[in-house]
Amino acid sequence: MSDAETVAGILDIAAAVLLVVAALLTLAAAIGLWRFPDPLSRLHAATKPQILGLILVVVAIALSARSATVLLLLVPVVALQLLTAPISAHMVGRAGYRNGDFDPSTLEVDELAADVDSAPGGELPGGAWEDEAAP
Is 115 among the domain residues? Predict the structure, then answer.
């Protein structure tokens, strides 16, 4: 067996391992979306493992294809995901917060409470959550 065949075999095994890890991350994200109680906690499951899983899939494809052209086609995919996933997660989280669709006891620090309360019509449905959290 030549050195080129050995390196190709190692790269193929690395690509397969990366695909398995990416599949496990995607499974973890799906379980998190199913099990977490509110949108604010589901955001972590929806974005963090999915982005890392996508990056691992892209690296696996690049290792498998061994082509600069394929790599140049895959870089924008990762870049767009890195740009759009945090923005969409922020928008979903903010909408869930403003609709009152969250468990206030799960927040350690609420940085939006003052902004929401001071905004016109900014009271959360059912009252401000500080009122609900008080015993």
Answer: no
Q: Which residues contact 25 (CB under 8 A, 6 or more apart)?
A: 49, 50, 52, 53, 56
- Residue 116 counted as domain residue: no
pTM of the model: 0.72
Q: Is residue 121 part of a domain?
A: no
| Tens of each residue's pLDDT in the chain, 135 residues | 788 889 889 999 999 999 999 999 999 989 988 998 877 778 888 888 888 999 999 999 999 999 889 989 999 999 999 999 888 888 888 888 777 777 777 778 877 777 777 776 655 554 444 544 445
Domain carrying residue 32: 3-102
